[in-house]
Design brief:
The structure is a homotetramer.
Chain A (H helix, E strand, L loop, with lengths): L27 H25 L2 H7 L4 H7 L3 H25 L6 H17 L12 H23 L7 H22 L7 H18 L3 H8 L1
Helix pairs in contact in A: 1-2, 1-4, 4-6, 5-7, 5-8, 6-7, 7-8
Chain B binds a DNA duplex through helix 4.
Chain lengths: 224, 224, 224, 224
DNA sequence: CATGAATGAGATTTCATTCAT
DNA sequence: CATGAATGAAATCTCATTCAT
């Protein structure tokens, strides 16, 4: 049923299952199958929450036999975990990319970059995951991911040459992260992006950065 | 998680309280029973999400017999709905109260008032509810509540005499509401309040209001 | 469905569920329901073994809804465990009864009593249980039950006034127990008892006791 | 534990080896593969019972791909059946060997020989198999094997020149077989042999034979 | 009316068996 | 032929809801 052989799944490679108990597919087909499952899982979890999501629906939506689903993810929790991990990896990776080209940016330029980054991520449906209620162990993983993202954001702030210390940067990052979360939550009502709202968020993020970063005023002027 | 053995019970006819299906208890005992159920329901929904919560646990946590629980809330959805309604009512009511004494406040004073208000509300655990996944109909109710709150916030902004129009105020309110939501989410890690973080949020809300409200600068000076 | 209210279940009272996780039924109906489940469980486990038995079949055979079955025995293992416990209790109890009236018996009379006792027990279908493969924990419980039965048998041997020590008696009991197990296994092919075979077993048990018990010869003569 | 997706495969046609369905491997590699599977099968069936054993585990334990396992034994039942057959063949064969050199033995010598024989067999783990629950058809095969063994034992008893008839011998054999079964069951707690217990069994078997065989006393004296 | 045992639809999970590679 | 991924029927188990007591 359905070929979907090659294609897809550039990101699926990153997924660390390891200790999760999930199985690594050997053949090409398996890899795209896993990608489809993760995709469907993200969707269903996002729509129904962890408790409301059913493995049956995820299987159906990814056109996977229930048995195959369980071959790759031996537990509902394992699937949620994999999704969480994938989300964390994705975020970390992209934040690192941003950091690499952040050095010359003005605060408001950075604000734009970050908001765009979140818009990108919200295309990835996995973003809904952070909302999911789960087991003890998953909560720890989520805390870990949040920490990683916060550190990533903080690193970006320090390379901006605003004289900010790592500690201060991490303090800022908490709020900044929260502001950025607004992007997928507020912007994506239904399917289309609410441009005016996005503009507002850009302004707010920019305002926040300019206001909180030492030397930011100067930098802002330089950049203009 | 699913509907079982539904067959439009004969008792459901007795049901009142809007279209919710929740029964209004006449005796004192009944009222406190309902309060306990709502309390427990808020807790459990917050902890486990809608799908993960079980009527049995809610009954146990509120020391109510499962049969009695179903007397007051003939459906899990009815209970969630009642909780949502209560939350909406509470918010509207308190926002009205704030509006009543808002006229003379400076933007930063208003920021403080609003943040305090959210801290108050987060004591009410029902706040977690807005996050939960539910049926179509519940989504509409949630949208409705969000709208009401937004309008309430907007009203407060207009009485501030900053020359802002209702339409502009509603635009601001969207972001403002989002910022305020940070309070329960970020402030209440575990049981104690993270004061420095609260201070940060106060500053940000204040910054946002001062920056976005016309004449705000002047007002801010006046108030100082 | 089906009344089976009072009646039955004189033995069901003995069943210790406690740590098992099984629930104690409060009403009369529940008690007979539990008895029916244990009955069916013993049958099905005996026929198909632990792995081959299905909760669904046990539910069907005891005319219990699957949900009710799981209310009383939250796990297949819990049911097996309860059955095992019941079996152990029954054996211990009856062995104690035999011990109480054993003092004056000759070895061959004792042999008859013990064989009759096993014939009685084999009416109870639970006897098949000792054959069941199960989890680690269940193996321990089985060892424990075996030990209790062995000690019970040993006690009976010591009250016979044959000058045997407790230690020697326990040694004998191992073989004796094994010999007695032959009764349900060999005697009950299908539904009717194979009398000649029973006679053989009686003879063998008697032979064994007379031969192994010191002073037995004298006692045997006395009794004749 | 149940039959799934059965549909009289086309490959099943190739099957030979009695009605079992097991395929006779032609190459050397195939033969050792089959041996490994039988070995693993005996182990797993013994540990978990028929219902609890999984083809996957048997495959893993014999380091065989699941597909290959199914090439040799097209059904779980076929594997159990083959194991049963092997066990029957082994027993019959060895009993015949014992019969060949039994003619001059005294009853107690025979007892020793038989107990040693069972100790040997218990090294073969397949002995656990007779205990397992299976299909109707397998039960018949088991009855058949039991019969063969009983007749084998009876034959041995008749060559002993004790004047016993074949009919009487078969009667004795039932109990004798049962006594002998004690050897693997009681002797092999864990991995080491419980010597004192073995001695007890030897004594009991000897006692039984001496007592039941006509002329046995004389023979016993002759042999001493 | 309160209670909690009973119910069964449906969710999660397992495993014998098949078949593309 | 060997391999192991894929399949789905059936098993275990959960929980919203009902209803006898």
């Amino acid at each position: 049923m359905a070929s979907q052989k090659s294609s897809a799944s550039t990101t699926a490679t990153v997924v660390t299952r390891a200790a999760t108990g999930a199985v690594a597919p050997k053949r090409e087909r398996g890899r795209s199958r896993v990608a489809a499952i993760l995709e469907a899982g993200a969707e269903v979890f996002a729509e129904k929450g962890y408790g409301g999501a059913t493995m049956t629906e995820i299987a159906a939506r990814s056109k996977t036999a229930i048995g195959s689903l369980y071959r790759f993810f031996p537990t509902k929790e394992a699937l949620a975990d994999a999704l969480l991990t994938r989300y964390g990896d994705l975020m970390t990776e992209r934040l690192a990319a941003i950091e690499a080209r952040a050095s010359g940016l003005s605060p408001s330029q950075l604000a734009d970059v970050l908001v765009d980054f979140m818009l990108d991520m919200s295309a990835d449906r996995a973003i809904a995951l952070p909302l999911i209620e789960v087991t003890q162990e998953a909560e720890e993983k989520r805390a870990h991911i949040r920490g990683a993202i916060r550190r990533g954001l903080a690193s970006i702030l320090t390379v901006l040459d605003t004289g900010i210390t790592q500690a201060e940067a991490e303090g800022l990052a908490v709020m900044l992260l929260y502001l950025l979360k607004a992007v997928p939550q507020l912007a994506c009502n239904g399917s289309e992006v609410d441009e005016p709202l996005i503009a507002r968020i850009r302004a707010l993020v920019s305002l926040y950065l300019v206001n909180e970063l030492p030397h930011a005023q100067r930098l802002a002027n330089d950049a203009s």
